[in-house]
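Hi everyone,

Forwarding the result from last night's run.
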Amino acid sequence: MTTEAHAAERRRPPLIAVITLLTAVLTVFLIAFAWPSARSEPRNVPLAVSGPAPAVAQIEAGLEQAMPGGFEITAVPDRQAAVQRIEDRDAYGAIVLDAAQPEVLTASAGGPAIAQVLTQLSARMSPENPAKVTDIVPLPKDDPRGAGLAAGALPLVLGGIIAAAALTQLVRSGAQRMIGAVTFAITGGLALAAVLQYWLGSFEGSYLGNAGVIAMSIAAISLTLLGLEWLLGTAGLALGGAVMMLLGNPLSGMTSAPEMLPNGWGTLGQLLPPGAAGTALRSVSFFDGAGAARPLVVLACWLLAGVALCGLGALRSRGRAVPARHEASAVAA
């Protein structure tokens, strides 16, 4: 064995170190994806209740006993007001305490998991007089469980990560990388929205609106990762990808709702592109845009942050290039 081979062999980490690292990575992936689902339960879910004040207080006490901290109750004057809060995305559901027959209003399009919880609670409210369950904003008939939107969370994240990784490897010019990221986000948004809306039937509403939200999400992720790679190299790309994959995806709430995630983590997920995209997609697709303003602002902030990081990367590259040119000129002289 040559001296160079001996040196290379010594630089390689011990097998036990490699196995330990791989085990740690696998464990982190399991925790990131399994923990939010395993701890999924209602937490401060906005719920409207209509009826006489004593009855509303009784329902609030009963819900607190059944699921402590699970619901945030808002009293409304009548059923119409309850429906309006649901359609405005100010509440996930409502309880209408009618003397003849109580009614539970749900919105499965806003969160199938919460709609299921409310349906189960309706059976326990008054066994002798079961509550009527009405889905005010239902999911599409072709996708009654919302599986398409839930499954779309991962492609959204992977689209941005793969785009950034491929562009950094295949395109030398920073400006062309940015143009490529935005162009891919547009084409990817149009393609994914077409599949989810026209083939799987998981979306409703405006096709271009749905495609626009997806494109914003992909562009926000890919531009941010491009900027991090420009500034920090491969480490920046890896760090950004890990945040989007290990935090953004499992905390997005697409499979349930942000209020079903552990305290604080659902809020964090809504500040990352995947979570903001999921909420915006539900709003644009099923609620005529109600409740979409905040998640769209989050996506816009990530887009601007990505552009800013790329700008800083360009300035840094330019700063490095000037001394190199001066040094080359001095050598030539």
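The first helix runs from residue 3 to 11.

Cheers,
N.
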